[in-house]
Amino acid sequence: MNTLIQKLHNAKNSQELESIRLEALGKKGLITQKFSELKALEGEEKRQFAQTINTLKQEFETLHNAKKLELQTQELQESLKQEKIDVSLFTSRSHRSLGHPISYTKDRIIDYFMQLGYELRTGPLIEDDFHNFSALNLPEYHPARDMQDTFYFKDNMLLRTHTSPVQIRTMQEQTPPIKMICPGPTFRRDYDLTHTPMFHQVEGLVVDKGNQASFANLKFTLEDFLKYIFGDVKVRFRSSFFPFTEPSAEADISCVFCAGKGCRVCSDTGWLEVLGCGVVDEYVFEAVGYKNVSGYAFGMGIERLAMLTCGVGDLRSFFETDLRVLEQF
Ligand code: PHE
C-alpha cells in the first residue's frame, strides 16, 4: 500500500495516474484482491479485515481524486499556453480579411438600401407579445407562437422571433412616408445544420400615403437587390402566406451552385428560397392607427444569404470562432 501511495504522489500525468488506479482497484488490483481474501475468513476476524481494507480503499481514493484534480488543472494550463495565439508574432502572410461573413453580408445589404434612401433602424431584442405577434396579425393560437419556436420570459415578454416587430415600432414613432431597414439578431428554439437559436434578419418596410406603394415597387426593388447581392441570377416570386402581409410572396433565385440545373443544395429544383415579402396587411395599419396608406415589407435571413454567397455548408460554423474557418475570408 505504501508503494501505491508513493506512486500516486509521483504520478506525472493523467495516464500514469490511471494505470496506478488500475493497479490498486482494477480487476486484478491489489486492493481488489484483498477483498477476495475476505471469503476465506469468518466472524470477528472477517469484520476487522473488511474494515481495514475499506479504510485503505477510501484513503487511496481520496488521495487519487486530489491528485487527479491537480494533474487535470496542470494539463489544462499547459494546453491553454500552447494553444494561445500570439497576435504580435511576425508572419509573412497577410491576415487582412473581408470581416466575418455575417457582418460582411449585413454591410452589403445595408449599403444597398441606404443608397436608395432607406433609414437604418434598430429595435429591442426582448419584445412584448403585442409588437412581436398580435400587432402583426398573429392571433393567439397561431402555430408560430408555439412554445417550440419562441423563447418566453415571464409576463408575456419574449426574445423576438423575427425583426418584424420593428415595423410596428417604426410606424408608432413616425408618420408616413417611411422607408426603413432593420438588421439584427433574432431568436428561435431550433438547432441543426441550417438553424441556430440566434440568427440575424434584415427587415424592410416602405409606407406611403394613398396607394403609392405597390407590389410592383416591391418586386422591382427586390429583384434589383438580389442581383446586386448574387450577380447574374434569375429571380422569381412565388405566392406565399404571412399573417402581416397580403398578398404575400417568397422570392427565389436560380441556384448559385448549379446555375439552375438541379443539385443537392437546391434539392434538384434549380431554385433557392431567399426571402419573404408582401403588401402590408390592413390589419397591421389598423393596429398602429394608420389610415389611407399603403406599404410593403420584406424580411430575409442574413446567415442564409451569407451561406450562399460565401459557400459555407454548416450554419453553425459561423458562430464557432474557429480560425481555420474564419481565415478563409
Ligand atoms: N418575418 C418573416 C419571417 O421571419 C419575414 C417577412 C418579413 C415576411 C416581412 C414578409 C414581410 O419569416
Any idea what the shape is?
Answer: elongated
Total domain count: 2
Bound molecules: phenylalanine
Quick check: average pLDDT? 91
Between the first and last Cα atoms, what is the distance in angstroms?
59 Å
Specify the structural class: alpha+beta
CATH architecture call of the largest domain? 2-Layer Sandwich
The count of helical stretches stands at 11
Structure characterization notes:
The chain has 329 residues and is of the alpha+beta class. The chain has two domains: 82 residues; 226 residues, 2-Layer Sandwich (BirA Bifunctional Protein, domain 2), CATH 3.30.930. The chain is built from eleven helices and nine strands. The strands form two sheets. A seven-stranded mixed β-sheet has the order 1-4-5-9-8-7-6, with helices on both faces. A hairpin with a 2-residue loop joins strand 6 and strand 7. The longest helix is centred in the first third of the chain and has 41 residues. The chain is elongated. The site of phenylalanine has 11 residues, from strand 8 and strand 9. The site of phenylalanine (PHE) has 11 residues, from strand 8 and strand 9.
